C-alpha cells in the first residue's frame, strides 16, 4: 500500500516528552517515545504499540535510563526493556538472559518537522511534504489542533480546497450570502500534487484581527495526498505591504479509512496577538466545517468523477481526485 511509504503527522512534538504516547496511523496502533540521550530533547521513536512478548500496549509503559545514560522503553506488563533500536535489552524475570536478535519490537521511521512528529510505516525514499513558509523568520508559527473528525483524510483535504462553501458554512467570517459568485481560477499539476491560483473571495473577516471585509486572493497547493496549504494576501487596510503573505498548512493523519486527526500550522506576520486568540479563530472556522464533513456520505472520497456532481467551481476538487487516483491512493477513498 503506497500510503505506508508516505510520511504522516501523528502528534505535536511537544506532546512527546517524558512518557510514551499512543497514536494511530493507517489503522495501526503506534507508540511514540523520546529517548533521553545527550543534553538535547532526545530523539523521537515510533514503534508498533504492541509488546512482542504478550501483546500488551507499550504506550502503557515508561522510559527508563540506565547508568550509562542509554534509554529504553519498558513494557508495563512484565518490565521487558527495549533499547532505542527496538531490541530487547532486559527481561527482568531472567536478569542474566541475553535476548537474541529476534526479541525485538516492531519499529517504524520517525522524524520531526514543522513542530510535528511524522511517521513512515514502510521504509522508502520518500520526502516529507514541503512547507516553505516554515523557514521564513518573518512569519510567526502557531499550531492549531488536533481535531478529531469522523470522515476520511481526503474529504478533509478537499474541503480545505473548496471556496464555494464559504458563504454558507462560514457566513460572516470567510463569506457572505450576497457574494456567492466564484471567479474563475487556474489549476495545474505540480511535482508534489496540484496548485490552484487566482482564487478570490470577499470575506467579512478573513483572519482573527480583520477590522472589516475585503477581497482576499488565495493560492492553494496540495503537497501530499493528505496535506495542503494556502497562501493569501490579507486585507490591504491592515497597512501591510502587497508582498506580505500568510500561509496556513493543513496536515491530516489518516487514522482509519473513515476517521482523521487534523492539525493546522499558521505562518503569520502577526507577532502581537496572543496565540490563543489566533487559535480560537481557527477553531471557530474548523468547528463550522466539522459537522458538515461528518455528514458527507460516503465518508470515503469517491475518485470516480461520475459518482458525484461537479461544476467548474469544483475544478480544484476534481484535480485533487485525479491526483489521488494517479498516485495510487487507496486509503480513505472509494
User: Can you identify the CATH class of the largest domain?
Assistant: Alpha Beta
Low confidence ranges: none
- Counted beta strands: 17
By DSSP (H or I, 4+ residues per run), the number of helices equals 4
Strand content: 25-35%
The helix content is: 10-25%
Summarize the main sheet.
Answer: 7 strands, antiparallel
As for the number of domains, it is 2
Q: What integer is the average pLDDT?
A: 92
- The ordered H/E elements are EEEEEEEEEEEHHEEEEEEHH
Radius of gyration: 22 Å
Query: How far do the termini sit from each other?
Result: 15 Å
Shape assignment: elongated
CATH architecture of the largest domain: Alpha-Beta Complex
Sheet with the most strands: spatial strand order: 11-17-16-15-14-13-12
Name given to the CATH homologous superfamily of the largest domain = Naphthalene 1,2-dioxygenase Alpha Subunit, Chain A, domain 1
According to CATH, the fold-level topology of the largest domain is: Naphthalene 1,2-dioxygenase Alpha Subunit, Chain A, domain 1
Please identify the structural class as seen in this structure: alpha+beta
Structure description:
By secondary structure, this protein is an alpha+beta fold. It is 14% helix and 33% strand. It is built from 4 helices and 17 strands. It has helices spanning 153-161, 166-169, 275-295, 315-327; strands spanning 8-12, 21-25, 28-34, 44-48, 62-65, 71-74, 81-83, 88-90, 107-113, 116-120, 140-149, 186-189, 194-203, 214-224, 227-233, 246-256, 259-268. β16 and β17 form a beta hairpin. The relative contact order is 0.15. The mean pLDDT is 92.
